[in-house]
Amino acid sequence: MIVELNTEEAEGYWEQDGEASLTSIVPVRSELATDDRRLLYLAWLLSVEAGELANDELEPAVPPGLARLSASLYSLVEFLRLDEDLLAVAAEASEPLSTIEPSTAELTRWVTRLPEQEKDTLLARLADGDPHLRMELSRRSRGETHPAPDGRGARTVAELEEAMGDRKDRLAALAAQAATEAPTLADVAPLLDACPHPRGAARGRAPGRTTGAARQAPARRRLPAGRARH
After folding, report:
1. Mean pLDDT throughout 137-152?
2. Of 28-32, 187-191, 207-211, minimum mean pLDDT range
3. What 8-state DSSP symbol labels residue 230?
4. SS3 sequence, 146-215?
5. Non-local CB neighbours of 118 within 8 Å, separated by 6+ positions
6. By the 8 A CB rule, do 77 and 87 touch?
7. How far apart are CA 125 and CA 185, in angstroms?
8. Is the pLDDT of residue 33 over 80?
9. Pair 137, 145: CB distance under 8 Å
10. How far apart are CA 180 and CA 182, in angstroms?
11. Can you give the pLDDT at residue 101?
12. Whether 80 contacts 5, CB under 8 Å
């Protein structure tokens, strides 16, 4: 499978130390190989942001874990400059990633049901150092214990864009309020809770364009486009 994602804007963009950025993105291939569909949903959101889809088109099935992106997925979001307010409103319909991760008991039952001959084959591959075995088993166990939904989501492109606009308005209102008085935790908390951020990152960032995790990317310059091909 080849997934190509690119974004082009009238204003150019250059990622200084782009090789390091791409290195941090590469693990998304392994995540996709384990049937983690967040990358595919992010690609769809990129098309929404680019205005390539009809207003009445329904979103794909929303994958779990959009509000807690892996570090590699968050690096991809930053590299492609996907609007984080759009991502935040999309993540409101996403279940926690833990809902599709099999528990130890579920994994034990799954392994127990495997035919003996298949277990022997898997053990031989493990002993031989098969580099793909872990991803294969992760994909199979997850898919057979918690099958991913194959239908469509409930929201249209227009509804997501409207929700994104509302969120931007609330953030702008908070910024204006902060210029004269400190916003209360009750004002800010709902917006912070909806911000996608990498697992393990601290919450509590001030509202703004860079919502969610603290960014650690180096200084950037501008150039025509950013592209990631996997």
Report:
1. 76
2. 207-211
3. -
4. CCCCCCEEEEEHHHHHHHHHHHHHHHHHHHHHHCCCCCCHHHHHHHHHCCCCCCCCCCCCCCCCCCCCCC
5. none
6. yes
7. 53
8. no
9. no
10. 7
11. 76
12. yes
- CA distances to 17, 37, 81, 103 from 87, rounded to whole Å, are 25, 15, 11, 28
Read off φ and ψ for residue 214, nearest 5 degrees.
Answer: -65, 130
pLDDT in tens, 42-65: 999 999 999 999 999 999 989 888
Q: pLDDT of 156-199, one tens digit each?
A: 999 999 999 999 999 988 888 887 776 666 666 666 665 666 65
**Cα–Cα distance list, 35 to 22, 90, 135 (Å):** 21, 20, 9
Cα(38)–Cα(44) distance, integer angstroms: 10
Q: Give CA–CA dist 223/13, Å, rounded.
A: 3
Which residues are bridge partners to 58 per DSSP?
Answer: 156
Tell me the average pLDDT of the chain: 76
Contact 59, 45 (CB under 8 A): no
Helix (H, G, I), strand (E, B) or coil at 59: strand
How far, in Å, are 85, 164, 215 from residue 91 at the CA level? 10, 11, 19
Question: Is 202's pLDDT higher than 80?
Answer: no
Do the beta carbons of residue 79 and residue 223 sit within 8 Å? Answer: no
